[in-house]
């Protein structure tokens, strides 16, 4: 079989990709907060990713074609559970009670998890003290950015804190898994498959939690609807596609730094 050598992307493409993930996902913290005011978190996230994935899948299929196998759908489903259901859906669920500052702080632990898990499970080399010092300083900076007022909240329990840490770990595991998993030749097609399968898992979870029976469309505010539309088109179709591409062409530890920059963007927008 002939081997295909993939040349590294141009520097400006990498810069543009990182900038897109930094800015867009920084804005999604605010958008999720608006969306869950009147939309159920799991079902909202499920429809968001299912619609975005379906549109992206159809567009790529009509343009380039594609024949994903059953195995490809299986690995996409695993990625959908780790990244969409747990990594994203649980964040939307927690933001009903936890402040955006505390959410951002705990999500910002993902670079440390990325370095550790990529070393233990991925293809990363053992890191030195400079890397760990940099990660610690980044986390300290995040705590100073959020401040004690944003981290307070009487309704925040250990369950919420555990779920947020679980979200970070699950997102990293899903990112590393999809980096090496069996997938179609088209990376955007695989991205769409992850969003579609993850959206289905989120909708099933929403049904288990009783969101379908309790939902009333008359209670949905215009603010929540606009936030949902933004999350679907920009936060999902655009940003997630770029993120999966970066995970393929860049160092995972570098890609994970979005967890440090996103909260800064969120605070500035707020």
List strands and helices in order, with pairings.
Blueprint: H1 11-35, H2 41-64, H3 70-94, H4 100-107, H5 110-120, H6 129-151, H7 158-180, H8 187-208, H9 211-214, H10 222-249, H11 252-255, H12 258-269
Helix pairs in contact: 1-10, 1-12, 2-3, 2-8, 2-10, 3-7, 3-8, 4-6, 4-12, 5-7, 6-12, 8-10
List keywords for this structure.
12 helices; disordered N terminus; 270 residues; mainly alpha; globular; 0% strand
Characterize the overall form.
globular
Beta-strand content bin: under 5%
Number of helices: 12
Taken in chain order, the helices and strands follow as: HHHHHHHHHHHH
Low-pLDDT windows of residues: 1-5
Classify the secondary structure makeup into a structural class: mainly alpha
Question: For the report, how would you describe the main beta sheet?
Answer: none
First-last Cα distance: 53 Å
Number of strands: 0
What's the helical proportion of residues?
over 70%
What does the average pLDDT come to?
Answer: 82
What would you report as the Rg, rounded to the nearest angstrom? Answer: 18 Å
